[in-house]
Amino acid sequence: MSSESTSLPFESKYWPSKRYSDVYSRSLEDMENFWDEEARKLEWFRCWDKVLDGEPPFSRWFVGGQLNASYQCVDFHDKTWRRNKVALYWEGEPGDSNTLSYSDLYRETNKFASVLRNLGIRKGDRVALYLPMIPELPIFMLACARLGAPHTVIFSGFSARALADRVKETEAKVLITSNGAFRRGKVLRLKDTVDEALTECPSVESVIVVKRTDLEVNCKEGRDYWLKDLLKDAEPYVKPEPVESTHPIYILYTSGTTGKPKGIVHSTGGYIVYNHSVFKWVFDIREDTVYWCTADVGWVTGHSNIVYAPLSHGATLVVYEGAPDYPSIDRWWQIIDKFRVTAFYTSPTAIRMFMRYGEEGPKRHDLSSLKILGTVGEPINPEAWIWYYKNIGKSRCPIVDTWWQTETGGIMISPLPGLDMVPLKPGSVTFPLPGIDAEVVKDNGEPTSPGERGYLIIRRPWPGMLMTIYKDPERYKQTYWSKFPSMYFTSDYAIKDQEGYFWILGRADEVLKIAGHRLGAAELESAAVAHPGIAEAAVIGKPDPIKGEIITIFAIPRQNYEPSEKFVEELKEHIRKVIGPIATPEEIYFVTSLPKTRSGKIMRRVLKAVATGSSIGDLSTLEDEASVEEVKRAYEELKKMAKS
Ligand code: WT7
Predict the structure, then answer these.
(1) Which of 270, 314, 305 is nearest to 67 (CA)?
(2) What is the pLDDT of residues 129-158, one digit of tens each?
(3) Element (H, E) at 106
(4) CB atoms closer than 10 angstroms to residue 286
(5) Which of 291, 397, 413, 463 is most exposed, with minimal Cβ within 10 Å?
(6) Coil vs helix vs strand at 600
(7) How far is 208 from 233, CA to CA, in rounded Å?
């Protein structure tokens, strides 16, 4: 996307007022007081001594304060009339459903916390969750938070390998899974994956199995327990453990530029305060809001925008278990109609997929309850934005295009209907949230001129910021705080237009965004070379009209391995097995050499130019680092391969 999109004719019915800019400038002029006021909207067991302590990268928020996230999300509401309010409308893929009130949620959270405590979980212990989108997933997260036990949720589409790596690093004592998961009418054997992963995870003492399907599963005596059996001994009340504001609420893994995913650690106090505030500004949350975020709880979007932010407000949530197009392409619209959803949050990939199926699906259902639409995860093209605005929002609902990251904890740049609306521009995330000092800068750290591409950075700490990378503070410093001294580096390219609107262009590093999911090129490459028939591999994200990017692999086969259709299929299957189905490569090309720099770094830029048919760019600048001849030879070869 380029700055040209800003000139797209689009009439917004929302008019600027002074409020956003007033609040924004005040928030930065007096940042600590601003966040102090926000933090007071929550219930703390002990007030903080300092709003902000320490220097970035190790800034700490609300230091000395004590709170409990599960108390904020359930007890707080259970003490009010909200105990009879719907907390969760849950819809299963096969069509079964369940409704939980805030008092149900309170009761279940307590019992689940008791189950964990009976298995020996105490403050600071890690608990791993590998579950489909069933109510037990958010309830177990809250139960962990109640005990002060950081959870690590592993997306249930990840493979045994990916699961084992995460569980091993966090040394989780308990792992929670289900005996199966429904996906497009099929039953996935989650427990088998767990059994495979656990052969190399000695820290796991107990496995809790939630019964979701009729699948028979293996049960290891003394290690595996059915949840329903453990619940028989559960106490009805477990006192919420007061934890320090800086106590980790969770660890969530995300991909970076090396083969090893990063365990992002979030604090309790800063994270909850930040998400509570931004959720109100972005989604204009009200007592009668029915909020549906279609993400899986296994990603940060689900952590912040399904569990902690909406529940901290006592909002009514919709949680759907299955695939968007199952059993038919209008399933989502049917759910919006059924639960009278008012705020709907999804990804550009999903919107583009529905766009391809046409307007008939949404037309079959009453979508008049909708008030706000949101999108997240990757840049949205203006065409998809307008389709969403017209066909889902019926030209009545603002779209909040929200930019943020696993690391930022919560939404950072977005329109703010709950605070003040600015005129929207399709494809732009508009302006930074109060307290967020975002800028687009050149290599030298100076702001770019309007329309000029630069790096998106955040100049000051904010409460939702990650605390560190689990077990790797050095990598934390290097990755986020070293490119520009004492500024948070997002790794995204962006531009600011003449009017100061932010436009996110995509990643500036070797991280791919496949249907909004984050995967590192290096991680995919190491998965590819783990196949005995692959000597070397290079991975790029090739632009795709629906998924944003698709995975394209250039691989050098070992001797005795002939490039063939069969080998392509085998390699695809292998990568699905190593990482998970989200990492399925769409295109695989076999080559005999790869363009590299002299120091041995693969030049993915050159490969990308080949794969997209764009200009290979200036190679002369590479003279010192790379064998230009080698690059050119590889380039010609790849071009031939790409054509055949
Ligand atoms: C990366 C972070 C945090 C929610 C889900 C993704 C891209 C995110 C937008 C947006 C353009 C976006 C960026 C960012 N991204 N939101 N509204 N417009 N790009 O979390 O997996 O940590 O990925 O997603 O490239 O760096 P994540």
Answers:
(1) 270
(2) 999 999 999 999 999 999 999 999 999 999
(3) helix 102-118
(4) 13
(5) 397
(6) coil
(7) 14
Residue having the nearest C-alpha atom to atom 23 of ligand 1: 405
Check residue 610 and give its pLDDT: 82
Query: Rounded to an integer, what distance in angstroms lies between the CA atom of residue 188 and that of residue 180?
Result: 5
Ligand 1-lining residues (CB < 6 angstroms): 254, 300-301, 376-379, 401-406, 429, 490-492, 504, 506-507, 513, 518
pTM: 0.95
Instruction: Give Cβ neighbours of residue 155 (< 8 Å, ≥ 6 apart).
Output: 296, 298, 299, 580, 582
Alpha-helical regions (H) of 148-268: 160-170, 190-198, 227-231
Q: What values do phi and psi take at 181, rounded to 5?
A: -145, 145
What angle is formed at CA 245 by the lines to CA 55 and CA 74, rounded to 5 degrees? 150
Q: Which domains does the chain have, with CATH numbers?
A: 17-64+250-437 (3.40.50.12780), 69-85+94-241 (3.40.50.980), 510-643 (3.30.300.30)
**54/63 Cα distance (integer angstroms):** 10
CA angle 477, 483, 485 (to 5 degrees): 75
Which residues of the chain, if any, have pLDDT below 70?
Answer: 1-18, 618-635, 638-639, 641-644
**CA quadruple 38, 43, 49, 51: dihedral, nearest 10:** -20
Q: Tell me the CA–centroid distance for residue 590 and ligand 1, in Å.
A: 31
